[in-house]
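Review session, final week

We close the course with one last complete record, chosen because it touches almost every idea we covered. It is Bacteriophage protein GP46, a protein from Pseudorhizobium pelagicum with 178 residues. Go through it on your own first, then we will talk.
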Amino acid sequence: MLKITPIDGEREPYRSPDIVWDGIAGDLAINPLTHPEAPGDLRAEQGLATQVLICLMTDRRVEPSELDDGAANRGWIGDSFDHESGEGPLGSRLWLLRRSAIFDGIEVAVEDYVREALQPLLDQGAAVSLDVEVVVNRAGNRIDYLVTLYGRGGGQVYEQKFELLWRQINAVANPLAR
């Protein structure tokens, strides 16, 4: 997990570049050429939104017992052994749901995975509380989830809606490829 901390009292804190999400893939955000201070440079103005994307859209490494027969584990291999004290694995287990059917109670699994993935933001104090609202759309073959984070004063500091698609067809190697 990237943690935004000051370098020292006189210098500006390190700010991770912003990541933007188009619903399929994430990419680094670039300032427009008209930006007054850093034209064409990496944008670093939405640290919390970037951290949420990293937490949710990065595949978390899982225990072998959580994998279907023959499935390969995903996520950063370092999560198997390279943790600092009190640090957990990065990312979410939402990827485990990609090949499953939309089963009764799947909204509970989605909410649990989202909360688990975003817990480091609460642990670091980037937000103090979290709401997750999950809506199953069986006809549309998808699940929408709304993530809302709240700051120390109780006000909303982040809100974004995401979706999980079940447009995959069994035996297709890359069902979400364009």
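Two points worth writing down before the exam:
Residues 1-9, 167-178 have pLDDT under 50 and may be disordered.
Strands lie at 19-21, 26-28, 129-137, 142-150, 156-165.
Good luck, everyone.
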